[in-house]
Each structure stands twice: as structure tokens, then as C-alpha cells.
Amino acid sequence: MTTPYILQLVSPALPVGAFSYSEGLEFLTQATKLSNEEEIYCWLKDELLRGQLRIEAASLSPIMDCLKIWKANKASSAKQNIEEWDSWLIALRDSVEIRSQQRQMGRSLLQLLSELNYPLPDKSKDFSWPIAWSWASLSWELPKFEVIQGYLFSWIANQLSACLRLLPLGPNKAQKIQLKLLPIISSQAKLLQMKDPHEIWSGDIGATMAQQSHSQLYSKLFRS
To answer: What would the pLDDT profile of 143-178 be if each residue is shown by its tens digit?
Structure first.
């Protein structure tokens, strides 16, 4: 049975600013690299199978374990473990644009959680998106499989939302793409729950180049 709190965490109404980022899609569409349903599906599928998103998703479970220890004993050493995870995940992101996005979304979610009476043990808010997502998941006692699956689903949903604003795709085709990706999301979540994130490789140099090129666009709908 799905835990109700996961519905709030994956909701597009979550006020973290995810809708304002395209993560390179705006550059790709203006460069006519992505222009139709099949190309978008293949791009998102490849990101699920080979993107840096997978490393973050696999990190959620061990991060939740570290946060649980920090919550229980509030020791500085426990916080240091979280800071090491945070630094490592941010360092893996090659683009300054995506690093800035991860920081902004993480702070926004931690601010929201604080206002909902779920602050971090030291009430800090300067952590990236995967750390904030893990803290929300721990606070709401979500099963780890749902946490990972929800993380992947939320990313796909935000990317499709961006596509709807960039291309004459139409919501029905976006839903068709999302439906086709659901089995991949589920299978990847099962796989990543058992994987050591430090042993996962990524091969999404195209996404990194698109993210870095976004700031060069003459006109933009999305934030760099």
C-alpha cells in the first residue's frame, strides 16, 4: 500500500521551484535536438538508465540511515556524515547550473519541512535536494523503495512539465510518455535500492553540456 505522505512529496504543487528549471531541455529544444514524442521518450529513458539521477537515487537509502543516526543522537560526527554525502553528490554534478538548482531546491524543501514542524536536528537548511528529500522521507517514515521510486518519478514529471511549455507536445502525449516510463522507473528503483551509489557509473555528458549551454540562450523561459 502506498504511504499517503509520498503523494505530498511527489506533488507538482510542492513549493520548491522545480517547475522553473528545464535541466537543459530548453537548450535542446531550441537546438532542435528534441522535437517530438519519441525523441523525448528516448532522452528521458536514457537518463533513467545512465544519468547522474541514478547515483542520487541510490544514495537516498544510506543518507536516510545517516539522518536517522543524526536525529537520534544529534552528534556533530553524525552531521559530518551528512555533509560528506552532500559534498560528494554536489561534486558529481559537472554543471554549475545544476549545482545551483540542487542547492536552491534543497533549501526550499528544508524550509517547508521546518514550517511543517520537521526541522533538521540543528535546524539548518543549507543542504542539497537529495539530502532534503531523504529528510522528508525519514520524517514521514516512508518505505525506502517508495522514496527512490518517488524521486525518479518526480524528476520525470518535472521534465515532462517543462516539455509541455517548450514544445507543441500536448498533455495527452506527455501522459503517454510517462506511462511508458513507469515500468523503467519501478525496475530502476528496485535495482538502485540494492546498489552502492559509489559503484554506479553515469554517461550523460549530453545532459551536462545542455545544462551548461542554457545560460547562452538569447531568450529563456526557465532559470539557468
So the answer is: 999 999 999 999 999 999 999 999 999 999 999 999
Q: Report d(CA 99, CA 91) in Å as an integer.
A: 8
Q: How many domains does the chain have?
A: 1
* Cβ-based neighbour number of residue 32 at 10 Å: 8
96, three cell numbers: 554549475
Helix axes 144-166, 171-193, angle to 10 degrees: 150
d(CA 118, CA 220): 35
Within a domain: residue 4?
no
Joined together, the cell numbers standing for residue 84 give 560528506
Domain that holds residue 178: 24-216
Total Cβ atoms within 10 A of residue 96: 12
CA distance 44 to 54: 12
What pLDDT is attached to residue 2?
A: 64
Instruction: Record the pTM.
Output: 0.96
| Residue ranges in the chain modelled with pLDDT below 70 | 1-2, 224
- Is residue 1 assigned to a domain? no
Three-state DSSP class for residue 163: helix
Cell of 104: 536552491
pLDDT at 49: 96
As a whole number of angstroms, the distance between CA 120 and CA 108 comes to 13
CA angle 6, 7, 8 (to 5 degrees): 90
Residue 158 in domain: yes
